[in-house]
Specification:
The complex is a heterodimer of chains A (306) and B (481). Chain A is built from 13 helices and no strands. Chain A has a single domain, classed as MetI-like fold (Orthogonal Bundle). The N and C termini of chain A lie far apart (54 Å). With 481 residues, chain B is of the alpha+beta class. Chain B folds into 2 domains: 261 residues, Periplasmic binding protein-like II (D-Maltodextrin-Binding Protein, domain 2, 3-Layer(aba) Sandwich); 200 residues, D-Maltodextrin-Binding Protein, domain 2 (3-Layer(aba) Sandwich). A 5-stranded mixed β-sheet of chain B has the order 2-1-3-12-6. A 3-stranded antiparallel β-sheet of chain B has the order 10-7-11. In chain B, strands 4-5 form a two-stranded antiparallel ribbon. In chain B, α12 crosses α21. Classes of the chains: A mainly alpha (306), B alpha+beta (481). At the A-B interface, α12 of A face α5, α6, α13 and α20 of B.
Chain lengths: 306, 481
């Protein structure tokens, strides 16, 4: 009996598919179906939407080609939102990565009570960002906010937290960092626990100082974890919507309108669906470019470290 | 007959007949005159809808039907929780209520109106979006239903609705895109209407020998005199919020003789007049009041002002009359007994007037045909006189019916209703709500004016910026060439 005949005997053909084909279909089918229904179809639909002028009162928009994209590029509010998103991403990610890594290194000292503090530190991550926004809005309330009250009790003037563009953006970044620095901390801390001790010991035996060990051994080894956390947080910060919705609603003026909030405003407030879809696609393009640059940068850093 | 008796019984919480004694006839007449004036103006229009006559009406006709309703969550949701057992007892129907926040409500409304079949048989739509939603042709015409004596309760009384409110949310000429025009009716005012009135602290005014401001100069001078470390002389919505533009600025604008738009909203000459002298003056009046307003008034939206006034930190402000609920509720307000109301200030020779607010109730065209008549039965129950009275009596929600404003029992309990009725009678329909771009235009104005209040630009520059941006939006929408 040759191999070919065995294969032929084992392969039961059903509708042009053999056993293996059926198995592949059964295993991958639901997943592919899910992807098609909930990822690919919405992507294609929103792309089509972005090429129409669909507004609230219409059932179907008119095909207008790339006009929405052209209008977007000429729209000063779009560029304002892009700038705000850029500030949000850059400032938030920088603060969160620096603080997260510092916290991970600090907790690696395993001081007494650190397990309890570690548990408390991650609590903000468990709260919905919209609730975080509303909570901080209450804390900073100019009339009865707790933070305002404490500052006044200390003899300082009533601060105008949310009335100037610069302070509001600063507050927004701080609150985002308060909530998400623990995420970076957890990722980096987990990586530190898995670091090979031999490498550090070898460096110490070779006479490296604590700084040298950190700079040339620990940090490069942590780089993949930092890169993962930074990229993840950058994507998240770029999509910032819920915190802004709860805290500032884009004010003062358009000072805290990010791209995601701009898309929401156009889609759900102004019911300008075609334009909002175009904003979303522009976000996707910016995100893809940004991520490529970021991943390449971190990839180079990691290779350089090796 | 039995069912009719049921329909006529008072609602839970309604006061007894005996309590109605001792009502000032003068007060009743004042209210009746205020509401009646606008009725005269729109009388001809109202005649377009014949009233139900014969007695073939059976309130239990649709017993067993289950309906879904999309409702505004501004107190009406509480009303429905209270009254649901009575609704079920009197109609035999079940009504499921969905009452999301206004943003999601608008989104849900549009989704359902555009779907093959609406999941909601009754939809509450925002008056500012009448052109967008009713004008889109999505709602059932109601004229035949009102005139059908078998389907409309004989005591429902369509003519009793506030004429301005009917114009705002009811009549629409689909062919010519004319809001408040023609004879075709698509919505019923409800579950609340409303406008803007002047709230002031009687105790502070009396102590200082002051009277409610009649003009904007008086408003500012009064604010100056009453301002102290503990109480702000006045307040307003200073945050980037819908009401900054269309309550605060718009009231000052039209009461100084301003006309917001010229030309035809359906033509290509619909031009804004934001940078007119009246427009700049209206914003300047707000800027001039900043020293006498709460320190962080630029962060004040609806809630902050209501909280500030109710806790006694604000001496006077103009605001949506619907805040009468929390302000006059002794369990929530420290100034319930110390608050007075009046018409909004106006420049010499100008009529006190403000924006026309309120909601409409309609039946989408795409509902299950088998449920359409049941939906009408539910809608007439929801907009009945007794439900309207209950809304005001229990929650001080702004009434949609003239008879509610004239109710002696309510007038005795809530003197502010006189001013509220007059405000609705004199209210001005927002001209920009005649085009679908209402909200983008509002957003532009809020941003520029809030920047002016923050001191980043003067009133003239802010108005010029709004004018330029509005013209661009109107050009893009084809309303201006």
């Amino acid at each position: 009996m040759n191999i070919a005949s065995v294969a032929a005997r084992r392969s039961v053909v059903i509708g042009g598919l053999n056993h293996r084909g059926v198995a592949v279909l059964l295993l991958l089918g639901p997943c592919l179906l899910y992807l098609a229904a909930f990822a690919i179809y919405p992507l294609i639909y929103s792309l089509k939407l972005s090429l129409t002028d669909l507004q609230a009162a219409e059932a179907h928009g008119r095909w207008i080609g790339l006009r929405n994209y052209g209008d977007l590029l000429r729209d000063p509010f779009f560029w304002n939102a892009t700038r705000n998103s850029a500030i949000m991403v850059t400032a938030s990610v920088t603060i969160q990565v620096v603080l997260g890594v510092a916290m991970a290194l600090f907790f690696n000292l395993h001081l007494r009570g650190s397990a309890l503090v570690r548990g408390i530190l991650v609590l903000p991550m468990l709260i919905s960002p919209t609730i975080v926004g509303v909570m901080w809005r209450s804390l900073l309330n100019p009339d009865w906010g707790l933070v305002t009250w404490v500052i006044q009790q200390l003899g300082f003037d009533q601060p105008a937290w949310l009335t100037s563009v610069s302070t509001t953006m600063f507050i927004l970044v701080l609150i985002d960092s308060w909530q998400w620095t623990p995420f970076v901390f957890i990722i980096v801390y987990a990586r530190i626990q898995a670091l090979p001790h031999e490498v550090v010991e070898a460096a110490q035996i070779d006479g490296a100082s604590r700084y040298d060990v950190f700079r040339h051994v620990t940090l490069p080894l942590l780089m993949p974890a930092i890169a993962f956390a930074a990229v993840f947080r950058a994507v998240d910060a770029f999509r910032s919507f819920d915190l802004i919705f709860g805290l500032t609603y884009g004010s003062p003026g358009r000072g805290t309108v990010t791209l995601a909030f701009f898309a929401f405003q156009n889609g759900f407030h102004f019911q300008n669906y075609g334009y909002a879809a175009a904003v979303s696609y522009m976000m996707l393009i910016i995100l893809m470019i940004g991520m490529t640059v970021l991943l390449r940068y971190f990839g180079l850093r990691a290779r350089h470290a090796q | 007959m039995k069912d009719k008796d049921k329909d006529a019984r008072p609602l839970e919480g309604e006061r007894s007949e005996g309590n109605r004694k001792g009502v000032s006839r003068r007060r009743v007449m004042q209210t009746a005159t205020a509401v009646g004036l606008s009725g005269t103006a729109l009388g001809g229009l109202m005649k377009a809808v014949p009233q139900a006559k014969a007695a073939g009406f059976d309130p239990m006709k649709y017993k067993g039907t289950e309906l879904n309703m999309l409702l505004v969550p501004e107190g009406e949701d509480k009303v429905m929780v209270d009254l649901m057992p009575q609704f079920e007892a009197e109609t035999g129907m079940k009504l499921n209520i969905t009452a999301p926040a206004v943003g999601p409500l608008i989104e849900k409304t549009l989704q359902n109106l555009k779907a093959d079949k609406s999941g909601f048989e009754i939809i509450n739509y925002l008056g500012f979006l009448t052109t967008q939603q009713v004008g889109g042709g999505y709602f059932t015409q109601l004229n035949d239903l009102i005139s059908n004596a078998d389907e409309t309760p004989p005591d429902w009384d369509f003519d009793d609705f506030i004429p301005g409110a009917v114009k705002n949310v009811g009549y629409f000429d689909l062919k010519n895109k004319g809001r408040g025009q023609g004879k075709d009716l698509y919505g019923i005012p409800g579950m609340h209407s409303g406008s803007v009135i002047y709230f002031y602290r009687k105790d502070l005014f009396d102590a200082a020998g002051l009277k409610p401001a009649k003009t904007w100069d008086e408003f500012r001078e009064t604010a100056k005199k009453l301002h102290s470390d503990k109480v702000a002389g006045c307040s307003f919505i200073g945050k980037n919020d819908f009401s900054l533009a269309f309550v605060e600025w718009y009231t000052r604008f039209i009461t100084n003789g301003g006309v917001l738009m010229s030309g035809d909203p359906n033509g290509t000459n619909f031009k804004p007049n934001v940078n007119s002298p009246e427009g700049i003056l209206a914003l300047q009046l707000m800027i001039d009041c900043l020293p006498y307003a709460p320190k962080n008034v630029t962060q004040y939206a609806y809630t902050e002002n209501v909280d500030g006034f109710s806790t006694g930190k604000i001496a006077q402000m103009i605001f949506w009359s619907t805040i009468a609920g929390p302000v006059f509720d002794k369990s929530k307000s420290l100034v319930a007994d110390k608050t007075g109301t009046a018409a909004v200030p106006a420049a010499a020779g100008q009529k006190p007037s403000a924006i026309q607010g309120g909601w409409g109730l309609g039946i989408p065209k795409n509902v299950d045909p088998a449920k359409k008549m049941a939906a009408w039965r539910a809608l007439t129950w929801l907009t009945s006189k007794k439900v309207n009275k209950y809304e005001v009596e229990k929650y001080q929600i702004d009434a949609s019916r003239q008879s509610t404003f004239k109710d002696p029992d309510l007038l005795k309990q809530f003197p502010y209703l006189t001013d509220s009725a007059a405000a609705i009678a004199n209210a001005s329909t927002l001209p920009t709500s005649n085009i679908p771009e209402t909200f983008p235009l509002n957003d532009i104005m809020n941003v520029e004016f809030s920047n002016a209040l923050l001191g980043q630009q003067d009133a003239k520059t802010a108005c010029a910026n709004v004018q330029t941006q509005w013209e661009a939006v109107l050009r893009k929408g084809g309303h201006l060439i």
